[in-house]
Design a protein that fits this description.
The chain is built from 9 helices and 5 strands, in the order βαβααααβαβααβα. The chain has helices at residues 16-27, 34-44, 48-54, 64-70, 81-99, 109-112, 128-139, 146-165, 186-198, and strands at residues 5-10, 31-32, 102-105, 119-125, 177-180. α1 packs across α9 (186-198) and α2 (34-44) crosses α5.
Length: 199
């Protein structure tokens, strides 16, 4: 295939994880999402539960790279645990891209691999009504109203992405293609991505 790596950024409830899995299956390559958590834990020493709970959280204040410059680039000792976690996953994503063809879901992979011309960057999104219905079907009710759950997750991902990339999450300029799963089925989205990657 002409593009070795597919990165999938996705809105909560849009079905991006499912689309990514379908694309990986169609292409016959590994898909890294929860699998990435295990690799990060193995390489970094962070506990799996810590990574799962804090994988989209940031330290307060300025962005990571400003902080690194401020502290003279001295490494992990002056960085928050969140920043250390980001650096660990950043390095693993780079290693995976060097090693094998794959699909990588989330974790700023589009930014981490932006300098590579063998990557295809995708954004999966949908309207709130579609996402609310899908979240309730997939994960069920919670103490928090569904509208608030969507907004909280969106804000968390946008803040995380902005903090570590200094650009806006969901901005179409960061991707090769943006697909709306409220208008295009998950299966068709996967087929479109696969077809484009193979060309």
């Amino acid at each position: 295939m002409s593009k070795r790596i597919v990165t999938i950024s996705r809105q909560f409830g849009s079905g991006g994880h499912t689309v990514g899995k379908m694309v990986a299956e169609k292409l016959g390559v590994p898909c890294y999402d929860s699998e990435l958590v295990t690799k990060i834990a193995e390489k970094s020493g962070f506990d799996v539960s810590f990574i799962q709970e804090n994988g989209e959280r940031t330290s307060r204040g300025t962005g990571l790279f400003y902080d690194m410059g401020l502290h003279g680039g001295t490494g992990f000792t002056t960085l928050s645990l969140y920043d250390q976690l980001y650096i660990a996953q950043h390095n693993i994503i780079r290693e995976l891209a060097e090693k094998e063809e794959c699909v990588i879901i989330g974790r700023c992979a589009d930014y981490v691999l932006e300098d590579r011309d063998d990557c295809f960057h995708v954004l999966i999104y949908a309207d709130d009504e579609f996402r609310a219905k899908r979240v309730l079907e997939q994960y069920g009710e919670s103490d928090m109203k569904i509208e608030k759950r969507l907004k909280k997750k969106d804000n968390q991902r946008a803040s995380y992405y902005r903090h570590y990339t200094n650009r806006e999450w969901g901005d179409h300029k960061n991707y090769h293609i943006c697909l709306n799963t409220a208008a295009i089925s998950l299966e068709d989205c996967a087929a479109i991505i696969t077809d484009l990657v193979r060309k």
